[in-house]
């Protein structure tokens, strides 16, 4: 079940493809998504959506990632899970 897959997200009128990986996390799950050179972990939140977490051991390149892009990825993951 941890096979990588591609998630396609439309952001600012352009389709972007990102490598993703499903990860079992206790009784829950996370989805690791590679955006640029940074891996973000998306985990389910209390409202049924997803929140993005950056891995602390990665360089501080997250400032280069647009928050709206992370929101678009989170919304796409929420659509796929319903």
Would you give an account of this structure?
- The protein is of the alpha+beta class and 82 residues long.
- It has one domain.
- The protein has one helix and five strands.
- The longest helix is centred in the C-terminal third of the chain and has 15 residues, at 67-81.
- It is globular, with a radius of gyration of 12 Å.
The largest β sheet comes out as: 5 strands, antiparallel
> How many distinct helices?
1
Average pLDDT confidence is 86
The quaternary state of the protein chains shown equals single chain
Poorly predicted tracts of residues: none
Rg from Cα: 12 Å
Strand content is: over 45%
Instruction: Report helical residue fraction.
Output: 10-25%
Protein structure class: alpha+beta
In total, the number of strands is: 5
- Give me the strand/helix succession: EEEEEH
Strand order in the largest sheet: 1-2-3-4-5
Question: CA-to-CA gap between the ends?
Answer: 18 Å
Shape: globular
Topology (SSEs and partners):
Blueprint: E1 4-11, E2 14-25, E3 28-35, E4 38-44, E5 50-54, H1 67-81
Antiparallel strand pairs: 1-2, 2-3, 3-4, 4-5
Overview in brief:
With 82 residues, the chain is α+β, with helices and mostly antiparallel strands.
């Amino acid at each position: 079940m941890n096979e990588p897959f591609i998630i396609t997200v439309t952001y600012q009128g352009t389709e972007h493809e990102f490598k993703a990986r499903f990860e079992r996390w206790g009784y829950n799950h996370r989805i690791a998504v590679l955006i640029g050179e940074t891996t973000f972990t998306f985990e389910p939140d209390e409202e049924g959506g997803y929140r993005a977490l950056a891995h602390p051991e990665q360089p501080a390149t997250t400032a280069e990632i647009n928050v709206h892009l992370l929101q678009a990825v989170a919304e796409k993951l929420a659509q796929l899970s319903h």
